[in-house]
Structure formats: structure tokens, C-alpha cells
Design goal:
Blueprint (H helix, E strand, L loop, with lengths): L14 H9 L21 H6 L1 H6 L37 H40 L16 H4 L5 H31 L7 H33 L2 H23 L9 H10 L2 H34 L4 H37 L1
Membrane topology: Multi-pass membrane protein
GO cellular component, one term: recycling endosome membrane
Subcellular location: Membrane
């Protein structure tokens, strides 16, 4: 009787099964090549080793553990059908050497811009410090100070000359309209027979003294002063509009069309033709002032426009400045209205 606790016999230890398994064992080749002519696996070792032509054309290099896997000389070179090797890959072109030079150029440009920003920030800080130290209160106009203006304290050093000439241009315009009123007054009281619009010219010139002096200051001089002080595109844009109109108006008055209030060239020719020398000399000075004021204003307009372009200002920037200022004004007025409403409601609740 057999032992029930004994290990069962292995069926594969049967001699018939073992001989059958050994007869079906396939011998794999020692090497497998990824060559097109030998893509199929070689099953017969004797056939693989017996091909002397093929084995003679292939050289087997031993593997070195110390070799550099990333070097070009140690890379595996694929074999062609004839047993020849393909050329090794070409090294990188010299274009990579231009990359460090380009990066250094960009780095130098960034450093230059950084230095410029630091200089501008330092100049702005110095100007603000001088402004705080020197400002004592409103100083313009001298007879009745309403606002503060100081070219040396508020305008950058490189733009002080242009702003000074703009101020002189505005003063020249004031002198011109004053002398124009005096010339029209002379013509009115000399009463030449050929000049019939003397009263109208004097009335218009007298009105111009009061209106155009204020309009010229607030419409084009003050905006260009703020533009050079703050470098805001909106102020430049306002100056270009109103100072352009101002230049056209000055040359229009220099012509001297009757009933326009301008002691200009037409009135000058009429007076000298009739022999009114005294009034003619006064009108001659007025005409010269009109022409000088117009050419000076046009020259300063050109210089300001060149500075505007060199600083990189654009019309789109001026539009954005205008929109931002309108939005700020709207928010500020809304906040004031809300605060006033809250105060009124709180006062009403107190008396309830």
C-alpha cells in the first residue's frame, strides 16, 4: 500500500517525455544582427558560422566599460548590406558659437537700458527734491499769483532751453497783441480817408488783448509746459492742436485784412500809399511783430514735434491718457457723491 503523504511523482520525469522534449530544443544564434540581409533569425549555428564570406566582412569590437557612451568615436555605426559602415554623424555647425555672442549683445542692451532708467530716476528725484526745497507758494502771474511755475525746478535740464523759448514766444505774443491795439488806436485817431474800418479794427484788437492772452496761456503754453515736465502724450497732443491754430491765426493777423483787428500788411500799404507816415511806421512795427511771432511759434512747434517723436509718444498713448483721466474723474465724482449721500442719510437718521 502506497504512502498517501508521499510527494506525487513528476509526470515530466518520464523517460519518453524527456526524450521528446530534448528532440525539439532549438539552438539560438549567439549574435543577432539587425542587417537587412540577415533580418530573419538564424536557426542553424553551423550555417551561421559556416558563411566565411559574411563573417570575414564583419569585425566585432569588444565593449569597454570605461568608454564614453556620448562621444562620437564610441557610437555604434550601422552596417550596410555590403558590410561597409556609414559615415559618422557630422558635428554641430559653428552657428552655435553665435548664440553666446547674441546673448551677450542682448545682455549689454539690457544693461544700457537699465543705466538709462537709473539716470532718469535719479534726475527725477533730484528735480523733485529741488521742487520741494524751492517752492514757497504760487508765483505766477507776479501781480496776482494763481499757480506755481519754475522752469529751473520743474523742467528737466535737457528741455529747459526749449521751454524757456516757449515762454518767450508767449510773451512775444502778448507784446504783439498789445502793440497791435496801439497801432489800431493810432489809425483810428489819425483817420485816414482810405481807412474806413478804423473803429472796428480798434474794438477787435482791444478785445483780443484780454481774451487771447488768457486763451494762449491755458490752451497751448500751459499744456506744453506740463508735457515737458511730466512727459505725457495728452499734453503734447493738446499743444499741437491749439498751437497749430495759434500759428495760423498769427499769420492771418499779419496779413491785415480790414475789420479783423489786425494791423498788418494790407493796412500798412494803404497808409504809406496815402502818405500817412506816422501811422504807417506804427503799423509797420506791428506787422513785423506779427511775422516774428509767427515764425518763432512755427520753429518751436517743429522742435517740440521732433522731441515728441524722439521720446516715442504716439496718438494711441494720448487716447489712453485721456480715457484714464476721464475714468479717474468719474470714479472720483462717484466717490464724492456717495460720501455726500451717506452724510445726508446719517444726518437725517440723527434727527429722526
Amino acid at each position: 500500500m502506497s504512502n498517501p503523504f508521499e510527494d506525487p511523482s513528476n509526470p515530466f520525469e518520464d523517460p519518453s517525455i524527456t526524450s521528446a522534449l530534448q528532440s525539439h530544443v532549438r539552438t539560438e544564434p549567439a549574435y543577432q544582427l539587425s542587417d537587412e540581409l540577415h533580418h530573419n533569425k538564424v536557426t542553424d549555428k553551423s550555417a551561421f558560422l559556416g558563411d566565411s564570406d559574411y563573417t570575414s566582412s564583419i569585425s566585432f569590437h569588444p565593449y569597454s566599460e570605461r568608454s564614453d557612451l556620448y562621444s562620437v568615436s564610441q557610437q555604434t555605426i550601422p552596417l550596410t548590406a555590403a558590410g561597409t559602415s556609414t559615415p559618422p554623424p557630422k558635428p554641430l555647425s559653428s552657428g552655435g558659437a553665435a548664440l553666446p555672442s547674441a546673448l551677450s549683445a542682448k545682455e549689454e542692451e539690457l544693461r544700457r537700458k537699465e543705466r538709462e532708467l537709473e539716470e532718469r530716476e535719479r534726475a527725477l528725484q533730484e528735480r523733485q527734491d529741488n521742487f520741494v526745497l524751492r517752492r514757497q507758494g504760487n508765483n505766477f502771474p507776479p501781480c496776482f499769483p494763481l499757480l506755481y511755475m519754475d522752469i529751473q525746478a520743474e523742467i528737466p535740464r535737457e528741455n529747459q532751453e526749449v521751454v524757456t523759448w516757449l515762454y518767450r514766444s508767449w510773451l512775444t505774443f502778448l507784446v504783439t497783441i498789445l502793440w497791435n491795439c496801439v497801432a489800431c488806436f493810432f489809425v483810428l485817431f489819425s483817420h485816414p480817408p482810405s481807412v474806413t474800418q478804423g473803429p472796428a479794427d480798434f474794438g477787435v484788437s482791444l478785445t483780443t488783448v484780454f481774451t487771447h492772452s488768457l486763451l494762449s496761456f491755458f490752451l497751448w503754453y500751459r499744456p506744453v509746459y506740463n508735457a515737458y515736465m511730466k512727459e505725457v502724450s495728452l499734453y503734447y497732443f493738446l499743444y499741437f492742436i491749439f498751437n497749430g491754430i495759434h500759428v495760423l491765426y498769427v499769420f492771418y493777423m499779419a496779413v491785415g485784412i480790414p475789420s479783423t483787428g489786425g494791423a498788418g500788411l494790407i493796412l500798412l500799404i494803404t497808409l504809406f500809399s496815402d502818405g500817412w507816415l506816422m501811422s504807417g511806421v506804427v503799423v509797420l512795427i506791428a506787422s513785423g511783430l506779427w511775422l516774428c511771432t509767427g515764425f518763432l511759434a512755427a520753429w518751436l512747434f517743429k522742435r517740440t514735434y521732433d522731441h515728441y517723436k524722439a521720446a516715442g509718444h504716439t496718438f494711441g498713448e494720448a487716447k489712453r491718457d485721456a480715457y484714464s483721466r476721464m475714468a479717474t474723474t468719474a470714479v472720483r465724482s462717484g466717490a464724492v457723491d456717495h460720501a455726500a449721500g451717506m452724510y445726508v442719510r446719517s444726518e437725517g437718521d440723527r434727527f429722526v
